[in-house]
Input
Amino acid sequence: MVEQSHYVNIPHRNLTDDAYIEILVALDATPEKLGALLADLHPADIADLIERLPRDHRRTVLANIPAEHLGDVVAELEEGVQEHVLQMLHPDDVKQVINDLESDDAADIAQVLEDIADDEDVDAEDLLDDHQQKKLLEFEPDTAGSLMQLEVAAALPTDRVEQVLAYMRSDAEDLPENPGTVFVVDKRRKLLGTMSINRLVKAPLKAKLEDVMRKTPLTVTPDQSSDDVVKVFEKYDIHNLAVVNKRGQLLGRITIDDILDTVMDDAAWRQSAAAGVDSSEDLFAPAVVTARSRLPWLVVNLGTAIAAAAVISLFEDSIAKLTTLAVLMPIIASSGGNATTQTQTVIIRGLATGSITRQNAWALFKKEFAAGNMTGFVIALLMAVGVWLVFGNPMLALVIAMATVANHAIAAFGGWVTPLVLKRYNYDPAISTGVITTTFTDVGGFFVFLGLATLMLL
Amino acid sequence: MVEQSHYVNIPHRNLTDDAYIEILVALDATPEKLGALLADLHPADIADLIERLPRDHRRTVLANIPAEHLGDVVAELEEGVQEHVLQMLHPDDVKQVINDLESDDAADIAQVLEDIADDEDVDAEDLLDDHQQKKLLEFEPDTAGSLMQLEVAAALPTDRVEQVLAYMRSDAEDLPENPGTVFVVDKRRKLLGTMSINRLVKAPLKAKLEDVMRKTPLTVTPDQSSDDVVKVFEKYDIHNLAVVNKRGQLLGRITIDDILDTVMDDAAWRQSAAAGVDSSEDLFAPAVVTARSRLPWLVVNLGTAIAAAAVISLFEDSIAKLTTLAVLMPIIASSGGNATTQTQTVIIRGLATGSITRQNAWALFKKEFAAGNMTGFVIALLMAVGVWLVFGNPMLALVIAMATVANHAIAAFGGWVTPLVLKRYNYDPAISTGVITTTFTDVGGFFVFLGLATLMLL
Output
């Protein structure tokens, strides 16, 4: 008889608001109750709890986590919090955590430990027992290799379905907790096909794997980007993906739950990176650490503003004669900035999904330019009417309308060309497009507006 | 003998650049070759191809898709393109598409058909054969119900593992293609436990399900939000989630591949919505349709700029006396805007992940306010030095420094309070926070800067 999976007996209380408040109260008043409260909580919920707690409470919680769940809790933490927690743990506990985890999580944590150690002697390799696991450390972040786990269920093409099922039931040491897919390999581990557990249980017991397996398995190599891997999962609705070397030999697998985490982390990362914020940073990191990490982006963006200021300074005489120009400047800058944001959003997304290619990029420019000019005309008309009514100056109304139309054209061009060029030179367009396009519309918009005003009004 | 799953025989050529160009050439020169090229392509790749093609080529491709894959292709399309394609299909083909799909996809497409029909008589219900499927139409978008499929593998608690495995192999009509999990229910369909296929194949053959199943299954009700559902999948690393009614009876299940699609669509949607762009819009929709959908956001944002202009107009006399103020205005607005973007990004993300609660929001404000003031001081110092060097006016340098410090404080407050208030009143903070916080920093920044300048310099 195999044992019941430990999954059945995992505590399952969730971190509801009530549970959270109960724990907060215990933290302040009766820390001795904490152990019992945490023992009922699902490990993923303990991780959530730790993330929400200001730093001084975390040590108390940590000391009261049931030992058998410590590994799962640490693995579930967000990176910034994970670093903080690993620094507080006793080295023996750290060793236990690594031993309890699957290969990919163990390697990740060993790497984090090496990165945060003050001591030069701490080496991730020494923290891992297994030769294979040590190899996982060689893969770059954001590659298929970094997402891969070594635990796979593998079988020979001549194995019959009933043999494979018997092997599953044997609870063999090398079987992963959730095999998901049986990878069919030859004696040299070359991947020949795949057979999902779903199809395995439906297949005739006497059939050989080679007759029922999927013969053209999807694969990635460990150096492919995690973006590529995500696309394969999304497109083909698979749950397990084989990682093979250049000779087609099976190295490991990537599972869809890790992909889900990756996608959510990536979305947060891109959004944060576009604002110069580190998405993995602990919410309760010291303010000075946060401030330091945010400064570079603020300084870079200052460049845009200085460029805009330089353009304005060319027209100081005009502004002195007609201060209304200064009043209207933010309207020009804002409408151009918003229009370029719209175009760039579409282009960045199209590049991310792969819908934009060399072949259709020009057709897309024509479409975006047309749409940008249309919104430009409407906004220009609104502004002209407003300016005429408020300032009673029809020529000024004409100038602002012309500048707006021109700036929306600049916006469409900048929003289209910038992400394409960044992508061409292998920069992530999601991060730096905004700074560049805003420079286009600020500088261009002020120049056209103040220039036209100087020519036509003064 | 059961038949081999049709999955084994799905064409598998991927849409590489070569394949894409080959098809583009065929479209222009030899459309008769198209059928053969498409027959080799995986349905998900045909969907990709259609999305990339300008509209006039799509009809030709559509006419050449092998009939047995038309359903899969249509289901894989992005919503905007899907609408366009459904309008081009013959009603008989549409019927075939719906019949070929699983319940959730079939209901989605029936709904799209109802939405796009000019004809009032087209009713999604009439397009679906099955009584149960019709019920899927009742669920609101972005709820668990809308993500649910009806096809589930269910068994009784007294069934033995070997019986369940035999049932799987029987290829019974009601079995889903990928069962994933066996839901254990009583005779009234009340959910008692779950047993993943992974654990089923490892369990002793003679064991009763009630002895080996997970007894505290995670569940959602159909009216829960899709955000809630995503959190359950991410947190607990499950592949299948039971949907139950208020009495705990099993209605259907949600699968992780649909969740992966949802997460990716949501990330795109939030990012696009924050720029007033419709993420489901076809890249090659007519420019006028695009322009019309983007205008409202541009007009709303004009409000921010007009508010800023109104503040500036209060200080026109000061600007006339010292036009350098107009030159420096964009620098004030930009640094404040960037600082508030950083704080709001952190708060929006914390709210999305659930890390920010009533209990820790204030601690977070203190931290963000401190970090904002620190960056404010550094940026202010840089600006003051720059202004002193360029304009040789130490008092002006002092004024811009003071205004910058004040505006970073405003930025931290606005970036913290705005998403919290929006969330409190059930607006999605990811969408409208930016407009509001920029108003804070533009209006506040100009007022402080021009006000201080008027007091101290003039």
